[in-house]
Amino acid sequence: MAKQLNYFVHHVFFWFNKPVSKKDKERFEAALKKLVTIETIVEMHLGVPATTRREVVDRSYTYSLLTTFKNKEDQDIYQNHPIHLKFIDECSDLWENVVVYDSVTI
Amino acid sequence: MAKQLNYFVHHVFFWFNKPVSKKDKERFEAALKKLVTIETIVEMHLGVPATTRREVVDRSYTYSLLTTFKNKEDQDIYQNHPIHLKFIDECSDLWENVVVYDSVTI
Question: What are phi and psi of A86, to 5 degrees?
Answer without folding.
Answer: -65, -40
